[in-house]
Amino acid sequence: MDRAKVIAALTLLLCAACTRPPHVTVASKNFTEQVLLGEILAQQIERRLNVPVDRKLNLGGTLLTHEALVRGDVDLYPEYTGTALTAILKRPPAYDPAAVLAVVSDTYRRQWQVEWLKPLGFVDTFAMIVRGDDARRLHVNSLSQAAQAQAWRLGAGSEFASRADGLDGLLKSYGLRTQGTPVTMDLGLLYQALDTRKVDMIAANSTDGLAAVRDVMILQDDRHYFPPYDCSVVVRLDAEARFPGLRAALEELSGKFTDAEMRKLNHSVDGNHRSVVQVAQEFLSALKPDSRR
Known about the structure:
By secondary structure, the chain is α/β, with parallel strands linked by helices. It has 2 domains: 3-123 and 228-292, D-Maltodextrin-Binding Protein, domain 2, CATH 3.40.190.10; 126-218, 3-Layer(aba) Sandwich (D-Maltodextrin-Binding Protein, domain 2), CATH 3.40.190. Helices cover 46% and strands 16% of the residues. It contains 14 helices and 10 strands. A 5-stranded mixed beta sheet has the order 7-6-8-5-9. A 3-stranded antiparallel beta sheet has the order 3-10-4. The protein has a two-stranded parallel ribbon with strand order 1-2. The protein is globular and about 70 Å long. The termini are far apart.
């Protein structure tokens, strides 16, 4: 290829890059609920704004995904109020849902020019879960009772093991005894480890689909150790400015999720092994017409 043809080819490539239409970048953390919510958000934007959406789903843990948002590598993702308060802002846990939302909303806007939208409607709190047969045998349904019953072989994700509202504080708050060092593992392996009796208690989530279809006991947090974890969309203000209809499109989903609905959606993926894309499409199609205006 002669020099003129090389220059022409490079020019075409540069022009193509320059004329790429504006796009929204949607991210999620690296577990099923987050990936599913990210896909729902992406499809909602495509439907309502008719703009291209880049997906960076399954991006990583809380800190990595937050940093991507702050840097402007992504425009939005779903986040939880209690996680933002303790893991991002390094504040002590608080227990009034409205107050927690107000604190994170104000701080994110001032510090990072990021807005918290109205909550989606469900709360995904941490849940300490044991096998149903153990709960019945030991007569436990709360964390206080579990602390008195025995020492537990505990399994948890690495993030829960290290965060301020996580494992260390929980053990101290309830006086929970462990057999050996708690085992950290990928979140997707927690229920398998419980099923195969490698561990006796797992630090999972209240909206886990698998918890709805297994013989397990979600132990009551009777001392209210965990702060509220209302789920909302966090979105960069400059993205809202680039796409004037973005906030309205996203807030059409506010209040449209319940805890039970989220468990059902999660189980469709984790338990029934259905496509995230298909589950998201069906959820959006099932919304009442007046909720999508």
